[in-house]
Structure formats: structure tokens, C-alpha cells
Amino acid sequence: MEMIQARELVYEYEKRDDEGNVIGMSRAIDGIDVDVQPGQFVAILGHNGSGKSTLAKHMNAILVPSGGTMWVNGRDTKDPRELMQIRQSAGMVFQNPDNQIIGTVVEEDVGFGPENLGVPTEEIWLRVEESLRSVGMLEYRTHSPNKLSGGQKQRVAIAGVLAMEPQCIVLDEPTAMLDPNGRKEVIRTVMELRRKKQVTVILITHYMEEVIDADQVYVMDGGRIVMKGTPREIFSQVEELKKYRLDVPQVTMLAEELRRRGVQIPRGILRKEELLEALCRFN
Amino acid sequence: MIRDITIGQYYPAQSCIHRLDPRVKIVCTILFLVSLFVQNSIWGYALATLFLAAVIRASRVPLKFIVKGLKAIVMLLLFTVVMNLFLTKGGRVLVDFWIFRITENGLRTSVFMAIRLVYLIMGSSIMTFTTTPNGLTDGIESLLRPLNRWKVPVHEVAMMMSIALRFIPILLEETDKIMKAQIARGADLESGNLIQKTKAMVPILVPLFVSAFRRANELAMAMEARCYHGGEGRTKMKPLIYRAGDYAAYGITLLYLAGIVVVGRFTG
Running DSSP on this structure, what letter comes out for residue B15? Predict the structure, then answer.
């Protein structure tokens, strides 16, 4: 069974003028099909306003489709009776670290999810400890979130989701407000979790460097999925990506430029090591 | 400068006051505040000072930190002192100058009023410094639970309070940022009379409100995403259970209150 499956997904909202009168409908998502297998790492790319965050919010039943269907772990998100199970099985991490931390102490925030689920007290403590350990924030458990760096706050937010024991984590631009160090820190944490706990990861981002390890990449533009494939397949189409106002990773760009100048290297190079290897063959 | 406001913040430390049940701290704080208003003698204040000093000492919160919180009420304090100083009649006249007349009673009331206010703030900030806002809300929720019978949404109110407390430092930081941004664009916040100064606050308050609403919206979404659905069926990570230390704290506070009453009897 698919972890997340969307068929013909449509999301419309009312456009309003300054007085609040409806002046028409706007489609944020326009007929999308998505399939995510358990354990996969799927990345969704797109520039601002492409509908990627709206799609993410459907995976947690924060938004309910206006047309089509979204299944999370086999459950239809339109069914209000399934709401709690859906939200438990697909945890969500948002962009702004300050606006998603509810507790005033790190461990209380991590415990917030399990408390809502009605988990017994002793087990909450076990889960909190385990979650904080797996994101490497255990030593900060009694700290105030206000004193942490952006990257640390996002790791606490990830721990908060982990404590609910989800099968899938949806990260909606978790690194957009972080500095380069924080960004690396968060992505490293997510990748480690994936390796250790086999959780499904859906990463929404516009940083290309973050998606090179993905199993599957979706590119969104204007509410539609315009490209789909492995990172190598996607990044070998540099011109097409530019059309959707997306960049390719620096290394890929360099390889592409070299190829255009007549250097015989393969398409879709993603890592420095690969480029190095390709170039060393000329010796 | 705006970051100096420390009221409502939690000061993490390991102390016996920190470990007390929040309900105890709330009830004892209220008792302490009441004790400040039921007596009006030097000995009463001395006893209150002693009690407060002992609690501050035991809480391991630096005195500097608590005093910093008083900065926020300096204006209010001055206002109260001046009002009491000039408007209280009776007793020997100490100073008589034009329309100002300071009497012995006025001096006495204003000094006591100032002490009362200062202790009021210090007493309640000790409570917030030593209790995590979540603990505080849990305490309030559990103390007010009887009101549920009259359909008062106790859990929701408690949750709102705890979130408000969590966002105080964030919004303060934001105010600071907006102020700097507006100053950088040539806003003049310092000069002018009171009306002009108030008007100058508008370009600070508007973006602050807008951002507060945006934050509220996002936070609500994050809470829902983590399965928040009100107080029903919710378990507690830190359930409130009275321990021996809590009963002892009640005992000490009651003893103090008895002391205040006795002192009041014999000196008032």
C-alpha cells in the first residue's frame, strides 16, 4: 500500500478583493497525481507560489481537496473520523521554527503531540527521550526554545513530530529560514532518521542541494507537476528546469557548462566526487 | 532595552521552589499578595521581606534578574508614590510649598504603597521564574476545574494563557526589530510631547499586530498538525501530584500568614 497517494488532486480557493467580495476562484493545485511508497525519500521542488506548500498541507489533512482524493496510509483525508490517525501517521514540520514550537521548555514541546494522542504519562517520557536523542538534542531538554539556534529549533520540531511515532514526515521548507549551517544540520538529521528508523520522508524545498539523495523528485509549477523522476533524470534537463525558474546544483551546472564547451562528460552529475571522477578519466 | 522586561519568563534552575507543584506556587503567591494588603505596619513588612528573601534565596534565581523585572513598572510606581505623597491628608505636615503639602501620613502611605507594589511584582515574578508556563497553566487549569460545571472553557483559557506567555519574548524581540527598522527609515520615536509620541507608536503597532496574527495562524496550524483537539482525551506529560514538599510549602506559607495576622493584631 502506498504511504501517500493522490489522484486528480485539485485545491481551489476563493479570490477576494479588498472588500472581501468573491471575485473568482483560484486553483492552487490543479489535478495532481502523487505516489509515495513506504520508506521512500521524495522531494518536491518548485519556486514560490507553485503550490508545493499547499500540496504538503493536504498530506496532513490541514487542507482538504476540493476535487480528487488524497490517501494517507490508505485513509481518505476527506473523512473527518480518520483525521487523528492521518495526522499521527504523517507528521508535519513547518518553515518558521518559532511558530511551531508550543512548549516553553524543549521536552514539554516534544511531549505535546503524544499528550494530544492520549499516550500514558510514562510512555510520553520514554518517547520524548528517544525522540530528542535521535535528533541529537537530548542535552537541551530542559532549555527554553527561545535560546536555541534556528537549526536546533527545527530539530526540536522534528523531535516533536517523531514523538508521535509517524510512518511519514512531511517537511515543508524546513530550511528556508535558516543559515547554511543550520540547513546542513537539519538535512543531516533528517537523513540520519531515514536511515535509522526507515521513516518515509517528503521534503518540500527550493534548495537543489538538498534533493540529490532523493529516490523521487517532483517539480511543480502553477499547481501542476511538470517533471518527475530521479534526481539524475531531473537535473540532466538543465534548460527545462530553468523554464520553471529553478536552478540546478552548482556541480551539475559546472558539468553542464563543460559539456557545452565540448568536454566529454555524462549528463546529470550531482556530486563533486562524480565530476572529479569523470574529469579524471581524461588522464 | 525592551528585552530587559523579564516578567513572565521562566528561569531554568534546580531548586526546591522549582520542584514545587505549580498549584502550591499559585495558591501561596496569592496568599502572599493578600498578606501584603491585610497589614500596614513596619513589622508586617519586615516579616514579608523576610519571607520573600527566603523564597528568593531558595529559588536560586539571581536577585538581579528579579529586580530587572521591576523596570517595567517604574512609571506606575512613580505615579502611585507621587499621588499618595501629595493627596493623602492627616498627620503632621512635613513640607508645605505652594499647592503641595506633604504630610506624615502621606509619606508613610506612599512608602508602604511602593513597597507593596514592588513586593507584588517580585512575589509574582518568583512564581513565573520558577514555574514553566506549561506548569503554570496546568496549575491554573487544575485549580479552576470546578468552574467547568458552569461551562467555563477552563482548558482552552489555560492553553491560551500558556501560549501568550510563550510568545511574550518573541513578540518583544519583534517589537525591537520593528522599532529599529522604523528608526532606520527616519521614524522619530523619542522627541515630541506625549501625543506625538503616541502617534509615533502607530507604525510600530500596526506591523506588530499583523505579524502577531500571522504567527497565531501558523501556530494554530502547527498545533492542529500535531493532533491538538482541545482538552478531551488528552493525557499529561507532567501530571500534578502533591508530594511531601508541597504540603510543607503550604504549611510554611500558612505559618507566615498567621505571623502576619498576629503582627497586625499587636502592632496595628
Answer: -
